[in-house]
Amino acid sequence: MAQNVNFDLSHPLIEAGLESPVDEEGVHDSFSQLIAEQSQNEGLSDAFELQQLQRQLDEEDRDDVAFLSSPGHDFRERRPMRRDVEWQDNEGQADPLVGERWSSATMKVLSSMPSRTIGRSRGAIISQYYNRTMQLRRRRQSRPAIRDFSRSARPSIRGYGFEVDSTDAEVSKRDRLVNNLQNLSVSDRVRMLRGMPLSVAEKSELRSLALQKEKRTLSGSQIPCCSQLKYYIIIGARHSWYSWLNFLHSLHLWQVALKTVSGRFGTGVLSYFLFLKTLLFFNVFLFLVTGAFMVLPQAVHPPVLPAGRSSFSGLELLTGAGYFSDTVMYYGYYCNYTLRKSCRDDGGVQNVSLSNGTRLDCVSKHLSYNMPLAYFFTIGVAFFITCIILVYSMSKSFGQSFRIDKSHSILAMKVLCSWDFKVIKKSSVKLMSENISTQLKELLAEVNQKKVKNTACQKLGRLMVHGLAWTICIASTTACVLAIYYFSGYMHKNLQQSSLSADKNPLLTEASLLALPVVVSLINLLLPGLFNLAAWMEDYESPSVRTYVAICRNLMLKVSVLGLLCYHWLGRVAAEPKSIGLKCWESFVGQELYRFLLMDFIFTLLDTLFGEFLWRLFSEKALKRRRKPVFDIARNVLELIYGQTLAWLGVLFTPLLPAVQILKLLLLFYVKKSSVMMNCQAPRKPYRVSQMTTVFITLLCFPSFLGASVCVTITMWSITPSSSCGPFRELKTMFQAGKRWVEELEKDNPNLSVLARAHSYLVENPFFLFVGAGIFLIVIYFHSQVVDGQRKIISLLQEQIENEGEDKKFLITRLQSIHEKKRTPARRLTSQDSSC
After folding, report:
1. What is the spatial distance between Cα 291 and Cα 306, in angstroms, rounded to a whole number?
2. Residue 313 in domain
3. C-alpha of 78 from chain center
4. Quick count: other Cβ atoms within 10 Å of Cβ 370?
5. What is the rounded CA–CA span in Å between residue 46 and residue 58?
6. What pLDDT is attached to residue 32?
């Protein structure tokens, strides 16, 4: 049936219309060439077309573009006027071009537009690619020129509404195209078939015909044995390479699980698991570095342990103290001497070097390993490389997420180009279909999102509600932080009193150390529930805005708690370790961080059990409702950032804490994935979170990693280490280990005085540290500015495209008005003649 022509560029039906060829440049290089060809070929076809159009206009006694047929339909078919009116009413858009009366000259211009003539005929497509294969063959080898062939082999642009080529001509052109494809190389043939705007079945048919003819040709001629062997080797190498690529692709961690989560719950929940995977890789890197340069050398050369070592009781798994205190897990176990291959004499006495001002009993010239220097530089280099990776990931994420792809264009790409036809397994097909379906729901929700205009009273009411909600959140956070402050001070005084008492129970003392981590973890578990209640009171229309607000409130809580804990460890414990009876305050802080990390994991499991599993059972059994809880992205992501900050803070005091974090993340992934699949439901309002991964990486970099780096730097630069344990004993600061090593190098070799001066200016001076941090911030700023400039340029280009569409509408309207003015006097003369 015929259909009205609508020139509204933003109309959804325009997006779902027919597509032009992929490479229109091969048909017509420019509009000027198209106009030139049109002017040269103005013949019988144009005359016939104009006669048909004029006859139709005479019969209808009007010029209406509504009866211009669509591609593949006859011009004589038209839709009833009542259906046209109903369609226009349903659209609800007042387009001045629809319903106008067009002249034959206007319709001739419209039918000759490149967008109406290119790529509409299947025969024209075959002719076009026949010419392209001929051009490619002429470049490869000497062939006759294109002018030697008939004009029917050239691309036709008259396929709009008429069948230009007959069936016999199309079959002959198909045969010639197959012959040309056969004579091309394999890569050129694949590239040519891939670029044809035909269906997959027709492309497969052309490919099979070309291969059949090629096989006949090869079977008729004998191939030498050397060539056959070469072909077999190439095919075997290619199959081996593809198998290796498939094997590497199968090694990707949690690939199927992530696709399953994405297909059922969307990109919001998927971003949580991707962020967890990113944190896992950071901890694996940190564990490999510390394990290779700190833990392994010290484990191979263990120090002499004291006689009264405590036995394993099982409580150490929760407290981290007791038996674990004298292991490579904590700072106090590491020695402060240079490890040598023959540093043990026959009596079994271990010798040390002069690097830290201690005695020298072995002067072996074998390879040595300075443990204090390795400890210092390993921590510094690990943090520096982590900073580089974070900055690079953040800048890359900025470039990927802040794109200007409109939802209309992304929706079209998802509909037309998202399916992978190589997937044949039933489970993979089902998984991919669910994934695409969820992404389409998110895009449609973004397209259909409407801004509600509120009155002044409504705006004032919403502003008061938001102010009340933020007041509740800030007040509750402040109250919890003050409670933690006073409770930590009480626990510190309790440790002072227990250290002075003579009859104390070691197990009871260790168990009491769990009180502060339990209180902090309980607050981190319960207070986000109050934040969700405040968000429910605010009633946000956009789910993404609600998620970002929840992230801000949870971030405020986590940053406040971590800042207070850092003050407790560095301001109370490290300042007066003897007041609480500590010989190695670094190991105590490491044990505290281990307890906090473990309690955070335990309370996360309890939240998963009670907050998701039991709530689902209560809702289904007691309330008789099928509604399940929605996965809280903000709270769970901030829990991950909180745990990772503890791991970065504790790597100086507990070198094996990244290994604990790795085990925690592995278990957490499978627990959360199972809970999400069983106990949670997808959001009722699907939404696309294109920038959420960037927000997560940014929060991980600035509040988390930057805060941990500042605390570690203050500890190494300004706080005095313990005098009876660790690799930095008998030093005023940990930083002096590198300074003393440089001084010894300068004494042994005066030519290395340049290294000493470079160390004093670059490492000792904090100015260069701030300069390096400033350079990183400047790089991030410039990258964000470049991305912002690209966004503005793309916006201007899109606006220019829309303006060009409006220009076309204006020109067509002006053309019609000029024709109407010219035709009015002629109609008056005709009416006067008829009256006479």
Report:
1. 24
2. no
3. 49
4. 21
5. 18
6. 44
| pLDDT of the residue at 774 | 78
Q: What is the CA radius of gyration of the chain?
A: 38
- HSE, CB side, 13 Å, CA atoms: give it for residue 38: 18
- For the chain, the domain total comes to 1
Instruction: Kindly provide the b/e burial profile for residues 90-113, where b requires at least 16 CB atoms within 10 angstroms of the residue's own CB.
Output: eeeeebebbebebbeebbeebbbe
- Ranges of the chain with pLDDT below 50: 1-54, 56-96, 98-99, 117-120, 142-165, 220, 342-365, 404
Cα(760)–Cα(137) distance, integer angstroms:
69
DSSP-derived 3-state class of residue 482:
helix
Strand partners, 369: 339
Please name which of 110, 71, 78, 92 lies closest in space to residue 2, comparing C-alpha atoms: 78
CB 580 within 8 Å of CB 500: no
In a domain, 91, yes or no: no
Beta bridge partners of 681: 630
Q: What are phi and psi of 11, to 5 degrees?
A: -70, 135
d(CA 545, CA 491) in angstroms, rounded, equals 40
Position 409 scores a pLDDT of 65
Residue type, 694: T
Q: E-assigned strands of 596-735?
A: none
Tell me the C-alpha distance between 653 and 506, whole Å.
22
Residue 28 counted as domain residue: no
Identify the three-state secondary structure at position 609: helix
The whole-angstrom separation of Cα 361 and Cα 291 is 28
Domain that holds residue 717: 255-305+320-338+367-448+455-730
Residue type (1 letter), 472: I
Q: Which residue has the tokens 């390096």?
A: 772
In a domain, 577, yes or no: yes
Could you give the angle at the alpha carbon of 509 between the alpha carbons of 504 and 512, nearest 5°? Answer: 140
Comparing C-alpha atoms, which of 486, 474, 472, 469 is closest to residue 520? 486
Alpha carbons within 13 angstroms on the beta-carbon side of residue 349 total 7
For residues 80 and 29, give the distance between their C-alpha atoms in angstroms, rounded to a whole number. Answer: 40
Q: What whole-number distance in Å separates Cα of residue 195 and Cα of residue 129?
A: 9
pLDDT at 167: 56
